[in-house]
Amino acid sequence: xxxxxxxxxxxxxxxxxxxxxxxxxxxxxxxxxxxxxxxxxxxxxxxxxxxxxxxxxxxxxxxxxxxxxxxxxxxxxxxxxxxxxxxxxxxxxxxxxxxxxxxxxxxxxxxxxxxxxxxxxxxxxxxxxxxxxxxxxxxxxxxxxxxxxxxxxxxxxxxxxxxxxxxxxxxxxxxxxxxxxxxxxxxxxxxxxxxxxxxxxxx
Length: 203
What we know:
two-stranded antiparallel ribbon, mainly alpha, 203 residues
């Protein structure tokens, strides 16, 4: 066997092993990259995230969801979705009197990584304001994206996954993503957040 064939055989062997073991390059594992800018630092400044309780991931200027970091991204988006002013939180099902108050949900009472009670931050910080068209898109997509943990839509973000999804939709709308793109990315995010359950996104 010539040296060239030996090198080619070695390369193919490494490639096959990599594919079998799932060692795909990080860029191929990345399902979503979206501009984050200084929002992480602003969440800290506002007390939504307590840096003593949270990894430095919030400092990144882009959010890229991978299988390895999906739980950290989930918490980061949870913080943002909880705190950013939005009519979904202020006028949606979270405020329905039948539930006894927005503070009674897992997405609010369960947020313990900030300074003070979560309700001190609930829709309290205008990190950015969506246009009426962007807000309408967020509400439309949120009503059509369901999570398998409880069957509720992102329009009723009563758990951490729902609140994180709301935050993700707001970020995508601000960046000018189309409705179809938002459904696709939301479905991929759900696949990582619920690897053993079937995601249900889009209509």
